[in-house]
Design a protein that fits this description.
The strands form two sheets. The protein has a four-stranded antiparallel β-sheet with strand order 5-6-4-7, covered by helices on one side. A three-stranded antiparallel β-sheet has the order 1-3-2. With 283 residues, the protein is an alpha+beta fold. The chain is globular and about 60 Å long. The protein is 54% helix and 13% strand.
Length: 283
Amino acid sequence: MTTSDLLDDDPAQAAPPRSLIVTVYGLYAREVGGWIGVSTLIRLLAELGVDAQAVRSSIHRLKRREILVSERRDGRAGYALSPYARSVLETGDRRIFERHTAPDDGWVIAVFSVPESERQHRHQLRSRLAWLGFGTVSSGVWIAPAHALDDTRDHLLRHGLDQYVNLFRGDYVAFGNPAEQVSRWWDLEALQGLYDEFVAKFTPMVTRLAEAEKNTTSPRDAFVDYVHVLTAWRRFPYLDPGLPGTLLPATWSGTTAADLFFELRRALEEPAHEFARGLLADT
């Protein structure tokens, strides 16, 4: 399994059922032991407009990718998060739900070489480095802002990939403008387009919630909205390397998108949790 299996196939398209399932597990399953019964999962996904057959098909795919594992509890069929999926979600929590001002304190550089006989590890390593926010300088030299160092070191050690990599800390000293170089290391134009789409899609939700404030949003509606917002948002912290503002385009909309996400989170998180907790407790 690669880290990308926990993410949407295409962030510009509607979220597939398996991505909604991963969001539901990430939000609610871990506080009840990481396991959800099949019937409960079907009920939760039905609120999101996903029918039972699509849920079962998506579960099968997530099981095949070793994201979910089959487990019976008290005679009931259900699925739990795999240990690897748990570790990815725990790392992701810090990146998705915490806002940090990116410091301009240099770079971490990963230099790696994987023997051809172990090329499956080369693909795995590239996938993990991309997930950790690295851009590509050349085929075996990847770069990320220095604040990624601790997560990178821990993640590579945990998954046995440290034997292929050397990590360095450094500054860019020559030749060229770093703000121009980063556009070669990361596809910032494509990322900007995705942020713009997120803002366009979910800004009307803020307006709708503000207009409904007197009547308050029902827990069920909050659950539906929050799962869709988070499913759309949770890919960005894996696509965005977290560059300091001095290196970003003047028109950068990532900050606007983040403001929007955290505003919606403040409005929706608690009532959505109330609704999900009620269903989980009833089964």
